[in-house]
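Q: A reviewer asked whether we had any structural model of the full assembly, not just the individual parts. We don't, so I'm hoping you can provide one. Inputs are below.
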Amino acid sequence: MKAKVYVTLKAGVLDPQGKAIQHSVELLGYGGIADIRQGKYFEIALDDSIDQEHARAAAERMAREVLANPIIEDYRVEVEA
Amino acid sequence: MKFGVIVFPGSNCDHDAYHVISKHVGQPVSFIWHKETDLSGYDAIIIPGGFSYGDYLRAGALARFSPVMSSVREFAARGGFVLGICNGFQILCEAGLLPGALIRNRNLHFVCAHINVLVETTDTPFTNELTRGAVLRLPIAHAEGNYTCDDATLAELQREDRIVFRYCDDAGHITDKANPNGARDSIAGICNRARNVIGLMPHPERACEDLLGSSDGRGIFHSLTATLVHAQER
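A: Here is a predicted structure for the entire assembly that you could use as a starting point for your response.
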């Protein structure tokens, strides 16, 4: 069982790293980029004895309490068998 | 009165804080390893600057889970004085003891410089010996000092007079140019609602000796000791 957690900055929170990355990408010649926002991605390997429902609940809690800071970040959890 | 300086793996301003308390404040002080949980006997706790847990995940995010932090939470709830400096401010925000968060500086640079802050309120145990409107010259050294919070939190901080320090120029004017990291409303330091927990990005403990370029940090420690003396006399 694997849980994937995506952490992204909330809309409106400044992302200077994203802006710097966008600038570099544009220097490569890519045009038409409205915005680049940098985020974090976590892969959590869970014991196979845990069912999907409990895996999701556990990953949601980890995301809420540790992986993301809800003041500045949003998170999304995916669980795959 | 007894001071404690918490030491996390990666703290690096713990000795500076210890030095200032023992030498300039002249009070007993101990280091408290982050795995300790007994804070009885302490009157004030300093959470020092540094890179606790290497700033992994987010600055201050992992230190918040150290065993000592539950005790700090209880200590603060009992009215104990807590001073978070730089990484200490980040840890207090991550722990929810102070509102808001500290994100990457807007210019992405690690900024190491002497800056000015305006004393916005003297109604805290850490600033009561200072003068409102006074300009303090203090060093900063951080990459994640850009204070951010939502509109409701900012309004609450303003309404409750909880913005303690704001970045300013030499003359005490709040300008965008004088804001070294992009902090919302030029906020350099705030306190909690009970006013016994304060966090600030500048380093007053590195500004207590003229030899180091400024001794403006002393007023913060003198305020705290004056508060503790008054508390003990009552």
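A: Points you may want to mention in the reply: The radius of gyration of chain A is 16 Å. Chain A has a mean pLDDT of 94.
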